[in-house]
Design a protein that fits this description.
305 residues, mainly alpha, 0% strand
Length: 305
């Protein structure tokens, strides 16, 4: 019962923990390089797990393989890249607000393409969950006191944010189509999605280097910093929890829960961050606590549908 829903909430909690780590690591490595390193490490963890479970040699339906590869390229490769670009254009809080478009997009796409019917109670639970998250994120944005460097061109940031949400939701629906009702193991789907996303990110990195050479621009220093052992150790820990385990749980969620519900629960990371913020001594306002409470009511409705 509710295996997919519990997996989604667990993945959100791991992403919240990893976000705190990646926030520090991102100051020393560019997003593309960080994505490549953590993705490669996560693939290594998955291959090792498959070897231990004696599942390295398996037969997968070709249709599911194609869907999962496209899902990884669209959701991880293009969607995550568009999200990082949104962060640069609008700031992290505004980017997270636009990311809240992903759950209803996923629900609508799964309704149209997968014929997944959700009850009125489920739609209400999704709406309350997303509304609570938006309340937490917007409150932290309003009180951050630091203007976003790209806000002079908000139109570009909004377009990129919508593209990021569309990439995330499309990737989720494609994964749901490949996993639901099939014998595909979520760990194998994680490997295929990460591999496709890593290839896509590597291609984007090569394209940027080629563009710099054509335009005779100086290279970004962060792209060519040799990571220290301590830095790689931090990336490995974050990749283990925030990429390897979290994406595995995400795929379990998409296998056993409708795409819209899974995407709503996966988006609760900003709520999960609040108790972690209290532990490290940050202040949590009444408004943020109220948003978390609204989301908890929405989550309860999703489990009661």
């Amino acid at each position: 019962m509710f295996q997919g829903e519990f997996a989604a909430l667990s993945a959100a909690a791991l992403w919240a923990f990893a976000t705190l780590m990646f926030g520090r690591l991102g100051k020393q490595l560019s997003p593309l390089i960080l994505n490549l390193i953590k993705g490669a490490m996560a693939i290594g963890f998955i291959v090792l797990t498959l070897a231990v479970r004696q599942q390295l040699l398996t037969s997968l339906p070709m249709g599911s393989v194609v869907l999962l590869l496209i899902s990884g390229a669209v959701g991880i490769g293009l969607g995550d890249t568009a999200y990082f670009a949104t962060v640069n254009a609008l700031g992290a809080r505004q980017a997270l607000l636009l990311e809240m478009l992903a759950p209803p997009m996923a629900a609508l796409m799964s309704l149209v393409f997968l014929q997944e019917q959700l009850s009125a109670l489920a739609w209400l639970g999704m709406a309350l969950t997303v509304a609570g998250i938006m309340g937490v994120v917007s409150e932290r944005s309003a009180n951050s006191g630091v203007p976003s460097p790209g806000m002079a061109n908000p139109g570009k940031g909004i377009i990129l944010g919508v593209m990021a949400a569309l990439g995330q939701s499309t990737g989720s629906v494609l994964s749901r189509a490949a996993l639901a009702g099939t014998a595909v193991d979520p760990l194998w789907s994680s490997l295929l999605r990460l591999s496709a996303g890593l290839v896509c990110i590597g291609g984007l990195l090569l394209w940027r280097v080629k563009l710099w050479r054509v335009k005779s621009r100086p290279f970004e220093p962060q792209l060519f910093i040799r990571p220290s052992g301590r830095l790689l150790g931090g990336v490995a820990i974050a990749a283990f929890f925030g990429t390897y385990l979290a994406i595995w749980l995400q795929q379990i969620a998409l296998k056993y829960a409708p795409a819209g519900i899974a995407q709503s629960l996966l988006a609760t990371s900003p709520i999960m961050v609040l108790p972690m913020a209290l532990v490290i001594g940050e202040r949590v306002t009444v408004r943020a606590a109220g948003g978390a409470l609204i989301s908890l009511v929405g989550i309860w409705l999703l489990f009661s549908r």
